[in-house]
Amino acid sequence: xxxxxxxxxxxxxxxxxxxxxxxxxxxxxxxxxxxxxxxxxxxxxxxxxxxxxxxxxxxxxxxxxxxxxxxxxxxxxxxxxxxxxxxxxxxxxxxxxxxxxxxxxxxxxxxxxxxxxxxxxxxxxxxxxxxxxxxxxxxxxxxxxxxxxxxxxxxxxxxxxxxxxxxxxxxxxxxxxxxxxxxxxxxxxxxxxxxxxxxxxxxxxxxxxxxxxxxxxxxxxxxxxxxxxxxxxxxxxxxxxxxxxxxxxxxxxxxxxxxxxxxxxxxxxxxxxxxxxxxxxxxxxxxxxxxxxxxxxxxxxxxxxxxxxxxxxxxxxxxxxxxxx
Length: 325
Prior knowledge:
The protein is α/β, with parallel strands linked by helices. The protein has eleven helices and 14 strands. Helix 8 (184-197) links the parallel strand 8 and strand 9 (203-205).
């Protein structure tokens, strides 16, 4: 600030008022100080400003860097938080950074709340969350305590996919599960229910939310005496793994077998993938989660929020009429 004051020719105290956006400086002085700050490459120390204040207006985010679904949500969270006057402190889980490590680091940054997208082992359940700050679950695992919860409506998404495949004449629709991953059990149950509503027999092959697991699921189907006409993968990554294996085995998609995913992540939209899936809007999910946690910060005793966001069907080139139609 002294450098800025000397550069502009005003007092250090006046520069401080301008940088803190307090009254006491003319419009011309404010303009000159900001121009000088840009010229000298000066940026206010956000950490020091936060320490002087009673609140940090910072939210922590626990996530992994492996899931396109999570990357889309984190990007949306950054923009939605800024629009509400908050900043995010990102806490990625890695092989060398456990959930406990990440949460400890985030709490050390004076976060006011925590948004949780993932847990250590990629499983469907999580524990060990801090009790002294608000926490919202966003699209991932479910805690062993009651928390605000925002995620995609699996019932609507799976129903849309099954209805779409049935409308194309498919009767042999196999579901490659998400294994022990978040929402996998719900998606499996919804698949079974949707198939039975259409008078069809469910057919499940165990899998997981990874390309490797999707590939293994495709190999298992190819070893059957009769290949089903459609494969419903638990998420887009699983579907992409299955597509790659089918392509290597010269099995035509969708002429021989149709494939669908879930999430409409960035990989599903690639020109050489063109995966039929269900889309949710990351910005809408992020907004719901942030509204829930900010409201919880303001009123810790408010009723728990449970929000299920309705996805929409996106039809691309990986689905077509059943081969036996």
